[in-house]
Amino acid sequence: MDAISKIINDIDKFVWDWWMIILLLGTHVFLTIRTGFIQRKTISKGIKLSVAKDPDAEGEVSQFGALSTALASTIGTGNIIGVGTAVAMGGPGAVLWCWLTGVFGIATKYGESLIAVKYRVKTEDGRMQGGAMYALERGLNMKWLGVVFAVFAGFASFGIGCATQVNAIATVCRENLNIPEWIIGIVVAGLTAVVIFGGIKSIARVCERLVPFMAVFYVIGCIIILGINYDFIIPAIATIFRLAFTPGAAAGGLVGGGIKLAIQYGVARGLFSNESGMGSAPIAAAAAQTRNPVRQALVSSTGTFWDTVVVCLMTGLVLVTTIMKNPAINANEIDNGGVLTSMAFAQIPYLGPVILVVGIISFAYSTILGWAYYGERSVEYFAGRKGLIPYRILYIIVAAVAPVLALDLVWTIADILNALMAIPNLVAVLLLSPIIAGETKKYINNLDVKDDTPIPVVKTGLGEK
């Protein structure tokens, strides 16, 4: 087992070496420039559009339903445990790199969502299918690479979307509620089965109600902690910036590992959190009722804003201010992000652990639902509809056994699969950047204009024509 762990860790180090960091951040910056700093429009127009309805447009779910499904998969344990792991392993400076990944990643989320809608197809029974695999096939005539993406996404759903999330739920319930882990696995598997067998509309309905509640609930908890630690907020921000670029120490056992570790863990956890560049969220965007690709792309890009620019930043500040305020916490001896986060929320008398437990359970369960949909669409692309039932059954089985899996190994495998998903997706985004720029120019000031380009009808995903 030790040999296998070493191999997996070596692969993780390779895929998250400098070349991946440069590819990911480089794409974020490139698309920011190529789209004329689309982040401005995300704030001014995207947020407003996200709650607008467009029932006359083609699609399966509302724009908010598609965004909620995407947010359900992105606002997960990555925002809580993932940021904690980044701080523990990469130092406080990782918070800055995680945040910057979100700021510039808004452009990539916009671009990948735009091409997902532009190149989407419709099945004979009226379901919308889209994502990097369809953009690669229809936009670049690279179906083989689309299949590669779909295979990686299908496998990734079991890790990032299921195993890590159920494991987190089981751990927090065992430590705070004394509920045996195997019971949690069975309960989560059962609840997941009920929803995912209802398809995207069922998943979207649950996510539309769950996502706003869980986000507001968690943010309120963070605000309370920052109020308790108010005198350390400015020192924490200064420490985050300083240790993002240089090794060094700060109060409370905080030590920066230098720019490489800060960037590596910050970018990796940032991607795990907001999924910008992975190509996952655009799969949900393709199902939205929208008049044109730019309209839904703006809505989708708000997901990265809420997820990383807001929620992950607040989590990072909560953790760093807590460690600085409590010198007895030796962050160097903690390699579990969940432990750091638990210590932070323990500062809130009585309600702190409750907020954390409810936050992790709701965040993780919503992620399980969102990624089940991503996995289904990916499997349908390379295996056809005949692959859906086996996939759902296997997904539920993984949910049931996840509580007894080694969490650190599962997280590492999830990191690897995230990177492998990102590569073909970033190829699509970069090679189709002229299309992204052209569509942006065409619609950005005419968001109500309807794109009348016919949507191709296929038998059941391009895997079975």
UniProtKB/TrEMBL annotation:
Topology with respect to the bilayer: Multi-pass membrane protein
Keyword Membrane on entry: yes
Keywords carried by this UniProt record: Cell membrane, Membrane, Symport, Transmembrane, Transmembrane helix, Transport
Subcellular location: Cell membrane
A GO MF label: amino acid:sodium symporter activity
GO cellular component: plasma membrane
Primary location: membrane
UniProt keyword annotation of Transmembrane present: yes
Record field: transmembrane: 18-37, 144-170, 182-203, 210-228, 240-263, 305-324, 350-373, 393-413, 419-437
Pfam annotation, one family: Na_Ala_symp
InterPro entries linked to this entry: Na/Ala_symport
Protein family according to the UniProt entry: Belongs to the alanine or glycine:cation symporter (AGCS) (TC 2.A.25) family.
NCBIfam families linked to this entry: agcS (TIGR00835)
PANTHER family: AGSS FAMILY TRANSPORTER, SODIUM-ALANINE, TRANSCRIPTIONAL REGULATOR, LRP FAMILY
Name this protein carries in UniProt: Sodium:alanine symporter family protein
